[in-house]
Amino acid sequence: MEPVLAVTGLRKTFGALRAVDDISFEVRPGEIVGLVGPNGAGKTTTINMILGVLQPTAGGVTIDGVDLARHRSQALAQTNFAATYAPLPGNLSVQQNLRVFGMIYGVAGLTARIEALLAEYDLVSHRATKTGVLSSGEQTRVTLAKAMLNSPKLLLLDEPTASIDPATAQRMRRHIVEAAEKAGAGILWTSHNMYEVAEVCDRVLFMSRGRVLLAGEPAALVAEHKAKSLEALFISVANEALEPQEQAS
Amino acid sequence: MRASATFAIVLRQVFLLRGSPTRLLPMVAWVAIDIVLWGFITRYLGALTGPRVNLVATLLGAVLLWDFLARVMQGVTTAFFEDVWSRNFLNIFATPLTIADYLGGLVITGVCTSLLGLAVMLTLATAAFGLSFLAYGAAMIPFFLVLFVTGISLGVLGAAIVLRLGPASEWLIWPIPSLLSPFAGVFYPLAVLPGWMQAIGHALPPAYVFEGMRAIVAGHPAPAGTLAFAVGLSGLYLLAACWIFARVYRFALRTGLIARYSAESAS
């Protein structure tokens, strides 16, 4: 089965800093891959390159078999994303935001699609409310509804549940997983919540200082490294990766 | 260019106007104030000079045409600034939207909003002060075409500057029409300017519009050759402005500027 996302030898340098250093990985249809690591590890830089808003220094990204660098629009038509740091314009209503982005993605049967997403994400009563006045949890739901508009084959979620309460977060996680399973979409999911990663991800990539240090199934990684939990493994990997830098300074 | 994506950019502005009708006010209020102010100045000067000089056509007509150019430019830049103010670049550019789709949407928005301002200006200037553009005859077509294309070019250039230098550079953009007006000979022939200002003036397509306008008012035929040159020159500037925007956009992709417009506060 062809991967929905293939990242090959991806590198991004800013002057002397190697923000992302020659990473390669794949996401297959229906698979949820967790991209985890400490702050500054290069997760968001990686996601930005996959989203086409940051040009790699080297390497390539293929989305559903389409080379992003050569056929940007075609590749991005199969993608969507949600990130807590990229809220939708607050001065448009929920429905207006979904309509504008639905048209940008060229969604067929847009009105019906919007109605379905409003119902799915419990936003029917907020349809005419300006997005900026919604609570952060409600805004997250709007962003997720936007991310599902074009039924993407590849979904990029950058800390999608960071600003919502645990109960809503669990509901959202379940919802995203079900929607992705139904559509056969692959998901690249970044999070600092290791419980969340262990719950939803089929595979995990540990990044630190721009490199992928570990990769594998969450439970297998924990067992292999004799860690108590994924969080304990995260802390140990993050600290190990930081040691040489700390010694140098 | 995909029609639905371009129309989405326009629709966003329609939604904003519908949600906040006060946004309509700046589109019509300033031009109306300009026409009223200059209308009375024209009337007063007309009383001093007598009927031998057609001040309504030369002075009020010039104000209206220059305001039109400024409105076209501001229509394009304001539509762009909406994405700056709402930190929407990441959402917008991480989509299949192309630069042509995006600029097309900004331009159509600029056309619609400037036509609204033009309608207000024409109604006021005609009804209250007797300005008639019929006096300019068929030359009106190249006049408006040159001003329109130049306004779009300035708008696209302004958007490129703000994309490159960041949101704080917005204040650099608003005064551009005022900065250019002394060189464009809006109210006087280029010949009264010192040599170096004339040289700049000759590089500005609107200068040929105002020279042509004064020639027609003075009873001469419309200078078809120079107007054709101005149309061509404004077309070249439009291509140059789009090229600059595309280059700045590629720079923003290389440096991560687009992502940082949204994510600068993120860890």
Shape of chain B: globular
CATH class category of the largest domain in chain A: Alpha Beta
Number of domains of chain A: 2
Structural class of chain A: alpha/beta
Estimated helix fraction of chain A: 25-40%
- The CATH superfamily label of the largest domain in chain A reads P-loop containing nucleotide triphosphate hydrolases
Low-confidence stretches of chain B: 263-267
Explain what this protein looks like in three dimensions:
The complex is a heterodimer of chains A (249) and B (267). Chain A is built from nine helices and ten strands. Chain A is of the alpha/beta class. In chain A, the strands form two sheets. In chain A, strands 6-7-8-3-9-10 form a six-stranded mixed sheet, with helices on both faces. In chain A, strands 2-1-4-5 form a four-stranded antiparallel sheet. In chain A, helix 3 packs across helix 4 (110-120) and helix 5 (136-148) runs parallel beside helix 6. The longest helix of chain B has 32 residues, at 224-255. Chain B has one domain (3-263). Chain B has helices spanning 3-19, 24-49, 55-85, 89-93, 99-129, 140-165, 170-173, 176-184, 195-202, 205-217, 224-255, 257-263. Chain B contains twelve helices and no strands. The two termini of chain B are 35 Å apart.
Q: Mind sketching the topology for me?
A:
The complex is a heterodimer of chains A (249) and B (267).
Chain A: E1 5-14, E2 17-27, E3 32-36, H1 43-50, E4 58-63, E5 66-67, H2 72-76, E6 79-83, H3 94-104, H4 110-120, H5 136-148, E7 154-158, H6 166-183, E8 186-190, H7 194-200, E9 203-208, E10 211-216, H8 218-224, H9 230-248
Parallel strand pairs in A: 3-8, 3-9, 6-7, 7-8
Antiparallel strand pairs in A: 1-2, 1-4, 4-5, 9-10
Helix pairs in contact in A: 3-4, 5-6
Chain B: H1 3-19, H2 24-49, H3 55-85, H4 89-93, H5 99-129, H6 140-165, H7 170-173, H8 176-184, H9 195-202, H10 205-217, H11 224-255, H12 257-263
